[in-house]
Amino acid sequence: MMSSSFNIYRVGISFVMMCIFYKSAVDSLSELSPQKYFSTLQPGKASLAYFCQADSPRTSIFLEELNEAVKPLQDFGISVAKVNCVKEETSRYCGKEKDLMKVYLFRGNILLREFPTDTLFDVNAIIAHVLFALLFNEVKYITTLEDLQNIENSLKGKANIAFSYVRAIGTPEHRAVMEAAFVYGTTYQFVLTTEIALLESIGTEAIENAHFYFFHCKQVLDLTQQCRRTLMEQPLATLNIHRFIKTMEAPLLTEVAEDPQQVSTVHLQLGLPLVFIVSQQATHEADRRTAEWVAWRLLGKAGVLLLLRDSLEVDIPQHANVVFRRAEEGAPVEFLVLHDTELIISRVEGNTHIEEMQEDEDEDVQSPDMDIQDDEVAETVYRHRKTQLPLELTVELTEETFNATVVASDSIVLFYAGCTSTMLLTRVNCADWSDLCTKQNVTEFPVVKMYKEGKHPVSYAGMLGAEDLLKFILLNRISCPVNITSVQEAEEYLSGELYKDLIPYSSVSVLGLFSPNMTTAKEDFTKAGNYLRGCVITGIYSEEDVLILSNKYGATLPALLLARHKEGKVESIPFANSRVQDIVQIVTNALLETFPEITVENLPVYLRLQKPLLILFSDGSINPQYTKAILTLVKEKHLDSLTPCWLNLKNTPAGRGVLQTYFNALPPLPLIVVVNLHSGGQVFAFPSEQAITEQNLLLWLKKLEAGLESPITILPAQEWKPPLPAYDFLSMMDAAASQHPTRKEPECTKETNMQKNDKKQHEDKSTIRKEPVETLRIKHWNRSNWFKEGDKSFRHDNKEL
């Protein structure tokens, strides 16, 4: 903020420059002799003197840019002048060639700053540099996250922060920030950075452009609580910053009891719409909380008001709960029925089109059954049931062509009902060739199998997405496990160099170390490697010099070396007397993250750990401080009985429905909950008024363990089963993400050769998942004693998750 010693509104500033004489006079630049210039200097004011020699035209382009900067600088009280030197001039600013390429900024007769002229490359750079120099004590330039945190902590309860990132000093965006700081610097603390790493550290996702944030620190009284941040989503320009700050200054929420058409706020004046949340006396407090949540989400995008229906003289349709008014003059208000706050947000942001209250005019369109809508998988299948796939891109196989094709080449076969250059993509329509599909052990659709010449076919049980299927294909190119033949090759394998093209698809490489005589252990590891084929890279080393590796990595034979390529580290795990399933479980657990982002695809994997979930819900990337706090608790073994994770609502919108089930309405984020899915169904919420710190979390968890916290809701114990076994899509998702040892068949399963023996028919085995992802519930869990009884009287059995 601007110091009392320098009030720029009361001080005239001049900008002094040294130049080489440019004969074409610039009318808007004041031209003075050195004596005349110095005689005009006044205390507290400044001037611009460009001392010019008479025989060099090298600065013509620069003078043109300077001329354009004269008027804007004068608007800020900064004068610009040019001083013509003569050869006899004795001024220190005349006659020194090295000084002729510099620009000098003075206040009175005191030199404030000098700039090389090449840094003032255009009018934007000139204005930005001059204002930056004048406001140097008011605009804090920082380079690290620690700097930002220190400023934020020092201003909590005192003032708000205007934080900006620009790509470089002197850009148009930098000029816009400095012009805003000139106007608002006495009200807000401006903070500036050009460090892209700092921008990434505060959770910004799109980092290629300049950013402007408003930190709401003045209302924060708890020093451990983070200031709420609002991002300006418009391009970083002076007018946009002005509009944005004006909306930050406006009341967050206003209660009105008049005709929405007659209401006027600063938002309308700035060209932003108004959103009225319709309320009534009986639900006023709940409506106000909802309106405040919406107001925070729409801050800087729209004005939010709470409209009291009971006090209105104007009639509002009975079922309307939202009124929308555009900023255009004369635009009619719209009465809407929106039962989800996200629909309100989308309405403003223009992401969706919400119909006004009216009857469905399209009689040909039938809505899917409500039971189908409750299941996201079934609803997606229903919605895309008529989508035509580009089947012409694959080779269609029949009973006559199947064996000859898959025996002659490596093939991926899609069995259905209704890219790699060396892999032939084919398909079989089981509706036409049912006998063939039965012989190939195809009992549900769609099914994908890989056929490699001379080997048993391998079933793919993963998600039918391009990324997952490509991973399966690429990882199947190498044998599992790979036979490593030298210490040097083993080191290349562990470093990721040996199969560096596959590292993006397998972030962990597993190397089994054995002495040559450990026959049984090697056989078990080989079976485990086959089990994990297509899911992770595995290798085996059992040469005479294996002790070189075991000694280097502190491993007792037999051992597993787990190379985590993202972290760049190798860890050893002994597994003496471990059988195939134990080895698979060890590797499977190694693939799990310590603090993962939960998605629809990976949720079943973490549910299998059979622990309550500690979930941090966030509307975007999470604050690094939160991650640090949780990882510290993990390291100190405080979360061993929980599965800590986080869920980004932007990446996984289904999380909004989960939160609404827990809280009835979408609560402010970020938010931490503990969900005991496996026994009791209790849901506990970390107090929203507390900062997310190690100490606060640990104290809260101890209260949970002692039974001193009450659940906010208890999930009903119900099962959602697929209508038919072939529609059990969730079990397919389970198989895609996990290699649980209790399964009788792995995800990438070798099958008996059906081409050689059609009489043998086997069913592909996979775990049957009875509950959908949305229920977040697995039964028969009895390991934790945390949530013994809960508050049995506090039940919402009518809720579904």
Task: Tell me what the structure shows.
It is a single chain. The chain is of the alpha/beta class. Among the domains are: 30-123, 3-Layer(aba) Sandwich (Glutaredoxin); 137-248, Glutaredoxin (3-Layer(aba) Sandwich), CATH 3.40.30; 256-295 and 304-344; 392-462, Glutaredoxin, CATH 3.40.30.10; 478-591, 3-Layer(aba) Sandwich (Glutaredoxin), CATH 3.40.30.10. The chain has 24 helices and 32 strands. The strands form 6 sheets. Strands 1, 2, 3, 4, 5 and 6 form a 6-stranded mixed β-sheet that branches. Strands 17-19-18-20-21-32 form a 6-stranded mixed β-sheet, with helices on both faces. A 5-stranded mixed β-sheet has the order 7-9-8-10-11, with helices on both faces. β25 and β26 (569-574) form a beta hairpin. The longest helix has 16 residues, at 60-75. The radius of gyration is 34 Å and the shape is globular. Mean pLDDT is 78; it is low at 2-27, 351-374 and 739-801. Residues 738-771 are annotated as: Disordered.
